[in-house]
Amino acid sequence: MAKSMSWRHRLGWLMATALTLGFISASCPAADEQGSTDAAVAVDSNEAATAIQPQADNDAGEQEAQQQGQPDESTASAQDDPTDTPPAAEHANNSASGAERHDPAAAYEGLPTGPSVDTPSRAIAPSITAAPADPIAPPPVTTLNVILEWTPGPQHAALLVAQHKGLFRRRGLDVHLKTPADPDVAAKLVAASQADLALTDQLSLHAAVDDGRPIMRVATLVELPLAALVVRDDINAASALSLIDHRVGYAQQSDKDVLLRAILQQEGLNLSHVEAKDVHFSIIRAMSENWVDAVVGGHGISLPRELGDLGVATRVMSAASLGIPIHDGLILVANQEHYQSQQDAIRRFIDSIEEATRWIIEHPTEAWDIMVQQQPTMDSAANAAAWPDIRRRLSLRPAAMDHGRYRRVERYLHDQGIVKEITPVSRLGRDPG
Prior knowledge:
Oligomer: single chain
Helix content: 40-55%
Distance between the termini: 133 Å
Strand content: 5-15%
Order of helices and strands: HHHHHHEHHEHEHEEEHEHEHEEHHHHH
Strand order of the largest sheet: 2-1-3-10-4
Largest sheet: 5 strands, mixed
């Protein structure tokens, strides 16, 4: 009885152990074989062989059936119930689902893509092709009409060189240099708003402002006087007194009203003591054909050589030797009423001629070649001979204004009765720089 109970007790323990291993195998098939092996080691080999012989036979049959492709009951049950997913497959599905849930790019599927869309790090082709950038629009070009005081000559060197070298165009300017039909109208066109800029001399500026014309000096091209009195040598003129009862020609009204009048008044004379004649552009012809005995104006450098080539001997009396104060020989004037709107363009214009002047001083021969190429009528022996003298008078700082000089000339003309009132220097001109 004791042996029977002992055998039964052992058999119950073995069956409980087998059921436990079967449960574990069902929960983790991968550990099935390992669990069976551990159970077999835990019990006595002889007792285990006797106790689980039927079970072992069944396990062997099941394994043989699986090898032959015949599913056992558990397999059939799993196939019959589609909801009963094997643990391994369920683990794989869960892993795949977890990977899908954690894929950072999956959340962006079907959304817009392209360079401007914040996309995941995975490379996504842009949805559009970037078009080339629009061309940059050129800066606006400002047109300036500049009226010369005379036909083109060496005194216009800075303008001609700046035009040829593209210095105006580089600064956004389209500059047109024009020769007036009448040498007396250049400043008048600016005063009448029919031109942007004009060339004249300082003496003429003082008289024009005194007459109420709205013009003002903005630059100086030639900083020393060009004016002179050129007299035929056969009248033996030693001073202005020798002009009494002689014919004196002029090209501009200001040459008569300002320069000739000032010269005569230095000697106590006035315009009634001479015969003043307007010869317009025909100064050379008037002298060579004996229309006049003398001419007054801003041609004292080149005119004597031109007349000499024609066989007419002359004597030159400079403005300074005749008592005229030092003044700017060639200036640029603008309309005072339009100055504010044109100031930027005027400044660019002056910067251009300043650069051209510096280049001329360093390359005088090349500058002369450019001028005669631009203006073939300038290519004369007289102009070539006058070029060194005119070049030395060019202003290296065109914008700079000598306030003391303008004040002295204004006072002198007022004392001579040529201007009625003293005009402040600030009204006569400005330094655009």
